[in-house]
Design brief:
Layout (H helix, E strand, L loop, with lengths): L6 H6 L2 E5 L3 E5 L6 H17 L5 E7 L3 H9 L3 E12 L13 E5 L5 H12 L11 H12 L8 E5 L2 E10 L6 E9 L8 H16 L3 E7 L3 H9 L3 E12 L1 H6 L1
Parallel strand pairs: 2-3, 8-9
Antiparallel strand pairs: 1-2, 3-10, 4-9, 4-10, 5-6, 6-7, 7-8
Length: 256
């Protein structure tokens, strides 16, 4: 059986982020009834895991959803992270990324993807958000699976005075036409603490608007105060306090 959302789940706003065979991520389950709707969804995810259709599954729920959290734990899902989701509307506002600064950016050609992945890996080290369960090459392949052909116009290297600063990956959320997300945004460790995060985030918002997004949704870990300050600095407003639970296939568990 190949996992998919049913019509009822889609109508309620449940979202599937499909990075198979590496991951399946489920969001927007808070409108599902705890029983039997939520239970049946978890049963289908477990089948996908045990049939080796996917290596990891994650489910994100409202932090106050005690009953759903209990069901997740009863089904051997483990807490991965706690986060705050932010929202920003682009209506009536033209985004800028500080044109008077020395920040420049370059769309990465697939011929240069190896260097881009090395930069992405470097940016992910030592951050306050929960680390990925997958190596950077797998994250890239899963991203291509999840977002489709737009990956070719989404990977940017960012520079400050011609020196590498970080990466930003602006995307339109799959299944939508106007929802902007930053699949990843990161500053190199040696460039942190200098205020560049605010400018890099501004650049990401600018690129999302250029792609046609009319609003932006982003999230960060509950402990990541610097990123929360960046959201607030760029007029993004908190809208959702979430917890994400994860479960691995038996193949992955046996290797750990």
């Amino acid at each position: 059986m190949v996992f998919s959302l049913n019509e009822h789940e889609e109508q309620l706003g449940v979202k599937l982020l499909d990075g198979r065979p590496y991951y399946l991520s489920i969001e927007g389950v808070d409108k599902l009834k705890r029983s039997p709707e939520f239970d049946l969804l978890l049963d289908r995810l477990s089948v996908a895991l045990e049939s080796k259709e996917v290596l990891h599954c994650t489910v994100t729920v409202e932090a106050s959803s005690e009953l759903k959290i209990q069901v997740l734990e009863n089904n051997f899902f483990a807490l991965k992270s706690e986060s705050i989701e932010y929202y920003k509307s682009f209506h009536m506002e033209k985004m800028h990324f500080n044109h008077n600064s020395s920040i420049t950016y370059k769309l990465v050609d697939e011929r240069d993807i190896k260097l881009f992945l090395e930069l992405w890996q470097a940016c992910s080290e030592g951050t306050l958000n929960a680390p990925s369960a997958h190596p950077i090459e797998m994250q890239y392949e899963a991203m291509k699976q999840e977002i489709g052909e737009q990956y070719k116009s989404s990977c940017y290297s960012v520079y400050w005075n011609k020196n590498l600063l970080g990466v930003v990956i602006p995307i339109i959320e799959p299944g939508t036409e106007e929802e902007g997300r930053l699949f990843y945004m990161g500053v190199l460790p040696q460039q942190r603490g200098k205020g560049f995060g605010k400018l890099l985030h501004q650049l990401g918002l600018f690129l999302l608007q250029e792609k046609g997004a009319t609003y932006y949704i982003g999230s960060t870990g509950i402990e990541n105060k610097p990123m929360q300050q960046i959201f607030q600095y760029n007029d993004c407003h908190p809208v959702f306090h979430a917890v994400t639970y994860t479960k691995a296939s038996s193949e992955v568990r046996n290797l750990s």
